[in-house]
Amino acid sequence: MTSQPVDVLRPGDRGPAVADVCDRLLQSGDLPPSFDLDDRETVVYDKVVEQAVRAFQQRRGLIVDGVIGPSTFAVLDGARWQLGDRVLRYVPDRPLEGDDVGQLQKRLLSLGFTVGKIDGIHGAETDAAVRAFQTGVGLTADGTVGPETMRAFEGLRRSIRGGSATALREREELRQGGPNLAGRTILIDPGHGGADCGVVAEDGLTEAGIALAIATRIEGRLSAHGANAVFTHTGRTDAGTEEERASFANSCGADLVLSLHSDHSTGMAGHGAATFFYGHSDEGGWSTIGERFADLVLREVVARTGLTDCRSHARTWPLLRRTRMPAVRLDFGYLSHPDDAALLAQPATLDRIAEGIVVALQRMYLGDADTGHTGVLRLTDLRRHLEAMRAEKASDTSGPSAAEG
Predict the structure, then answer these.
(1) Which secondary-structure segment (H or E) carries 280?
(2) pLDDT value for 1
(3) How far apart are CA 214 and CA 174, in angstroms?
(4) Angle CA(311)–CA(314)–CA(315) in degrees, nearest 5?
(5) What does the alpha-carbon distance between residue 176 and residue 188 come to, in Å, rounded to a whole number?
(6) Using an 8 Å Cβ cutoff, are 1 and 96 in contact?
(7) Can you state the angle between helices 347-366 and 207-224, rounded to 10 degrees?
(8) Which end of the chain is more exposed for a tag (fewer CB within 10 A), N or C?
């Protein structure tokens, strides 16, 4: 991946760094071919460039702010590559990113090789899949996707049909894990932290404070069910960037990641709760389990709190994209809206949010055995349901042998 020339570019900036961004926007089709790049020293990040950046961010599921930060630049730089344009190989300290990597992952997955998440990042799982493919077709298994490997791809037909291989893999992993929360590791990411308070309401409530309070309540309920809760940070520390949080989640081997935030808007218009999961239909990447959990969490939280349902959305934000496990972000209300802020100021509301999240977790792991109604189940109800399932399974197992005796 090409290094970004500066940390952030925004409207009003000018010079070669802006010209480099415009080059990429021309290649992506977001700037018109007539855009003038003759004098690269004086190119200005004007309204036209800002609109092109926003269009690109919207299409790629990024935060639409019209600013070129590290996350937007990484995706923009990667958008100029198509599979076969460059040699691909695994670089542990600086993995290659781009549309060509995503196309490689889809190609491998369609042939039955496990690549993990289709995220356009050439990581260890993609490297292992490339080597397995090369071994299978009689090539040197060096992990390098060059002309020989590309020729081998061309002669093969798709071997998996009738649905998404990623979705099938995620569902099978979930099924094999069983219906219990016990033994699972859930990584909880309370938004912001340390000196960064996030959104601040008029009465002094902070996004970071509420997120940590909800996270603590979730931890207590998970511990009571034998699950492990790991925090990305404490109230006095900052977990760093989304990329760093995703790396921490991967190092923990978590089963699922939940990030907690509030939202805000100007003029107090926005209100309600929303959830976000990894997905981008154009690139083929989609977390089926993430979508399922996002939907369950939102429905449980809305039913228990009365917050407006702002729906679930697919996004490619770094924390959702870079985690190897399903990741979901919950925006639990708008602190800029007086009604939402008043609701979130009540400890009982935070209890209901935490209860709804853990119930959603348990319902997700129940899978097809989940027949509960949204917003009315309590964790004690689910515990009794699990005990009944175990008793029924034990009865089914012991029945034949008893009859033979």
Answers:
(1) strand 273-280
(2) 42
(3) 25
(4) 120
(5) 23
(6) yes
(7) 50
(8) C
Helix axes 165-176, 288-305, angle to 10 degrees: 60
CB neighbour list of residue 304: distance below 8 Å, 6 or more residues apart: 352, 353, 355, 356, 375
Q: Which residue has the tokens 């990894």?
A: 278
| Phi (first) and psi of residue 314, to 5 degrees | -85, 130
3-state secondary structure of 216: helix
Average pLDDT, integer, range 142-164: 75
Element holding 133 (H helix, E strand):
helix 124-136
* Position 377 pLDDT exceeds 80: no
If one counts every other C-beta atom within 10 angstroms of the C-beta of residue 4, the result is 19
Classify residue 147 by burial, with Cβ atoms within 10 Å: 0-12, 13-18, 19+: exposed
Q: Report the C-alpha gap between 276 and 328 in whole angstroms.
A: 6
* Rounded average pLDDT over 30-40: 90
* 89 class by beta-carbon count within 10 Å (0-12 exposed, 13-18 middle, 19+ buried): middle
Give the per-residue pLDDT at 160: 43
Confidence of residue 286 (pLDDT cuts 50, 70, 90): confident
Confidence of residue 371 (pLDDT cuts 50, 70, 90): low
CA–chain centroid gap for 30, Å, is: 25
Query: What tokens were used for 188?
Result: 């909880």
Distance CA 274, CA 290 (A): 14
pLDDT in tens, 162-221: 455 566 666 667 667 777 888 899 999 998 888 888 888 888 899 999 999 999 999 999
Going 277 to 281 to 287 to 288, the CA torsion angle's sign is positive
